[in-house]
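Hey, resending since the last one bounced:
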Amino acid sequence: MKLFAKSSSKSTGRTILSLVAAGLLGSSILTTGVMVASVTPVAAATIAAIDPTKGFSKLVEYAMPAVASVEVQFEEAAAENGPGMGEGGEVPPQLKEFFEKFPQFRDRFNGPQVPSQRGMAVGSAFVISADGYVVTNNHVISKADKVKLRFQNGDEYEAKVIGADAKTDVALLKIDTTKTLPFVTFASADSKVGDWVMAVGNPFGLGGTVTAGIVSARGRDLGAGPYDDYLQIDASINKGNSGGPAFNLEGEVVGVNTAIFSPSGGSVGIGFAIPANIVSSVVKSLKTNGSVTRGWLGVQIQPVTVDLAESLGLDKVQGAIISDVTQDSPALKSGLKQGDTILKANSEDIDDAKDLSRTVAGVKPGTEIQVEIIRDGKRQTIAVKIGTMPGETPKLASTGKGPENLDLSSLGIKVVPAEDGAGLRVTEIDPKSDAAETGLRPGDIILEVAGQHVASQDDLGKAMEKAKGKKVLMLVRTGDSQRFLTLPKMKS
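The structure tokens again:
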């Protein structure tokens, strides 16, 4: 998976910038934008839906004047790795002892430091108001010292960054000009799979380029952030297209092109765009506040699987299960607990964990909402006053006491009391056991079994007795995160 739009070059002619996100590998190119023939600007007002069988030229005439190529200048840090140094400037193990004894040779080994140099990256953007507000991707302009926009008619402007949101990869720029600029608007209705789309942007720095295709899928989760909800399109998009718009046949922006799936770095017909409804909401907040304020519940959540649904007594796979609650959070104050499964929030059905994240994030902080949960097999509704999402990851509120030495070898697991007294630490896993297949590993801490805290051998025995005839639900901590998993049905 590649982030394609931010590309870079230096006077040395070598690639200098790569972007990495969860599941998205960034790549870079060397060229800057080269403009193609200009088109007479058309004021962005309305456009009749075009007939794709007759071509897209009228849509291009309407949309192209509002789309810009982005050139970003930034200052690179001095290179710190000399010959023979490992990644991150680490000394190879075989030389570590030598340098400890003779530190005066370290600088000579490293070689001369490379001075800071100016770098350049390119991407795409589009105007959304006559007074010069412009939308692009956050990853296109992040860490920029200067942002320059170049339009199809040859006009160039320096743009100011009004605000950016890394979680959705959206940024808002502003052009300071007395001109009335051509602009485009966001679609009010969601795109459907099979709808035509036209992508406009700056692939490989070539300037205004148009490609067409259809919406291939909706709701794609790329692992790039907590609010992933991408449109998948097959219109050809490449490096340099990031931040550019995807239009419907009415000339409305249905998405912002952001990423591609490609083993080679070029288009293979699988591209991803941030849906217009998400972008417009983020842009409104950025324009007003310079940042995005999101609602916050304060829980760690995980999706409900088929096995978990059976363990929880649910008729179908739905909702999000709370694996931990954050200290001083709205969730903790309202009485939400580990193991609660959230089925509804703010009167909306919750399909999965991502759905809950997006629903809560869209609630204005300070608003009280009703959260429907299932706890111990019973449904109940809890009122929660939504807070403001903090900038840093808060500490978790979970605590527990350690049990005595126990042997769960019948399940393929051996455990001992955790060193901090919070649960049972897994010491051995039978690689052929069902426990191993669930992802349980040595070092994991078992905190709960069948909804019961395991504070003693008696507690564990009661919990296992309760689980007879059912799949065993366990709350497990791995590092700083927690999750629920299920083991096979206990024999009656």
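The chain has ten helices and 31 strands.

Sorry for the duplicate.
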